[in-house]
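Thread: Newbie trying to understand structure tokens

Hi all, I'm a second-year student working on a class project, and my supervisor (Dr. K.) asked me to get a predicted structure for one chain before our next meeting. I've only ever worked with sequences, so writing a 3D structure as a token string is new to me. If someone could post the tokens and maybe explain what I'm looking at, I'd be very grateful. Here's the chain:
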Amino acid sequence: MKRILKTGLALALAAAGLAHAATELVVATVNNGHMIEMQKLTKFFEQAHPDITLKWVTLEEGTLRQRVTTDIATKGGQFDVMTIGMYETPIWAKKGWLKPIATDAAYDVDDLLPAIRNGLSSDGKLFASPFYGESSMLMYRKDLADKAGFKMPDQPTWTQVRDLAAKVNDPAGGVYGMCLRGKPGWGDNMAFLTTLVNTNGGQWFDMSWKPQIDTKPWHDAINFYVDMMKKYGPPGASANSFNENLALFNEGKCAMWVDATIAASFVSDPKQSKVADKVAFAQAPVAVTPKGANWLWAWALAVPASSTKVDAAQTFIKWATSKDYVKLVAKENGWAAVPTGTRKSTYASPEFQKAARFAEAELKAIDTANPNDSTLPKSPYVGVQYAAIPEFQAIGVAVGQQMSAALAGKVTVDAALKTSQTAAEREMKRGGYYK
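---
Reply by user tm_fold:
Sure, no problem. This is what the structure looks like when written as tokens:
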């Protein structure tokens, strides 16, 4: 009897010890401003949930994508929460690699913007919760446009934008006419360049899944881009993506920048930007067609099926993507600093509308992006700045390297497009899309 009691006591003590041992969640995320801020606010989550601690793995965008893709495909189980996007979510959900997001009434899933929610769902179920959503738009120095006698339309053409870049380009004064992504990657330079191709009437694949890279719309778009950036862009543009261009813009070195709408809150923040009071916003420029001129994306938090800490992971995700989290950021840093592009309630907030003069342009860009109809010729794929098929990641990376090389002057545009076409055809044939 004594032995049974001792054993029972030992088990009870062990259970008590386990109850007090906090569950450690390993969170993989991208090194963007809003994610860095989330890490600083971790203490609020851990205070409210003393049984959960967070370990952050913060990576540059391209590295993050490689690491989480490898981990989830091999069921490595390194991460309990992954930061992924609209490209991966539906593909991985169909493969059974993600746990559905467990939402409740307090989370209010109907408050999520429809375009964002749909992009992170599969078969009507949410598989990743949006931390912030974005489209793309033009951010520009109104003071320089005024000085040049140019009144920016609500949605300018790329020709107008290039002509303004020529007028305001002043390398000797430390200001470059245009900053655009050049760093290779399907989510880096190719996110932007795909929108430029779209608006020039191009597409990645035709209805037979044949790659359409070595075609007139691609030649028009890439020649325009390379020519404009060589004349009016900053030196070393082929190495610049979102964070590099953000730093340049905030230092006052870019007259114009077309990129993610999420940048608006940073470039208009006087604590971060030397030109915060001089910035204005317009819709992404257009060429032949407005279709696909501005992208649609969300950085979202998901639980890999390989995680052994699903309940704790769901608890953290609900906290980080909730209305209350938005209010917490507003309380700590002001309404202009909240992660945007996800919830109707954020845009309905009078405090947010007052603090964020970019809100109207940002919401319009998100609402007008249509992943189901983003190209002038009909396309078989979903996605504005990507094609939602597993093979696209490899194709986008290969093409991105060629486009970056063309921008750096290492190869001609014609050669870069020809090489890209060959690489895309090889990948699509290997994937069984056509013979």
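A couple of things are worth pointing out once you decode it. The two ends are 76 Å apart (CA to CA). The chain has two domains: 23-133+297-355, 136-295+371-430. Feel free to ask follow-ups in this thread.
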